[in-house]
Amino acid sequence: MKVALRVPLVLAFWARGVVGGIIFVHQMPECGGERLLSYDSTYKGDRRREQFFVASEWAIELIRALHTKAMLEGGAEESVAELFYIPCFFALLLALHDTASLECLVRASATLVASPIFRRNAGYDHFYLHGFEHL
Q1: What is the sign, positive or negative, of the torsion defined by CA atoms of 24, 38, 90, 6?
Q2: Distance between CA 90 and CA 69 in Å, rounded?
Q3: pLDDT tens-digit map of 20-34
Q4: Phi-psi category of 123—alpha, beta or left, where left has phi over 0 and alpha has psi -120 to 50?
Q5: What pLDDT sits at residue 59?
Q6: CB 37 within 8 A of CB 63
Q7: Confidence check: pLDDT of 7 > 80
Q8: Residue 23 in contact with residue 117, Cβ under 8 Å?
């Protein structure tokens, strides 16, 4: 439980810019990553997805800003990292709720569960950006 109690404190300090260089960034499938934050590569040309983007743009912008911060702070080696960032937007994939996004969700989840880094502390030292609870 030591890890589970420490992570929220470290995350709070990280969000305020107090710590740096302690984040390891996982390699995740591209389908669940940054491209979901881009209108042109994910939403343009698909009417349902375009409508989703317009309704959700405020949340996507917030996630983009926090993701950028995490990526800039990331780069720590696994052995010295205190936090482990999962750059996959699971909630956004669920909210899109089409075949491609659900298949990506399966691939991303399998990638994470297969990671020994994730399994060693049952994921308690990992974080991802959610942001879609109330849509």
Answers
A1: positive
A2: 18
A3: 558 899 999 999 998
A4: left
A5: 85
A6: yes
A7: no
A8: no
Percent of the chain whose pLDDT exceeds 70: 81
With beta carbons less than 8 A apart as the criterion, state whether 71 and 25 touch: yes
Does 4 score more than 90 pLDDT?
A: no
Q: How far apart are CA 18 and CA 20, in angstroms?
A: 7
C-alpha span between 37 and 60 (Å, rounded): 6
Q: Which residue has the tokens 């926090």?
A: 66
Q: Are 7 and 127 in contact (CB under 8 A)?
A: yes
**DSSP codes, the chain:** -HHHHHHHHHHHHHHTT---S-EEE----GGGSGGGG-HHHHTTT-HHHHHHHHHHHHHHHHHHHHHHHHHHHB---TTT-SEEE----HHHHHHH-SHHHHHHHHHHHHHHHT-HHHHHTTTTTEE-----TT-
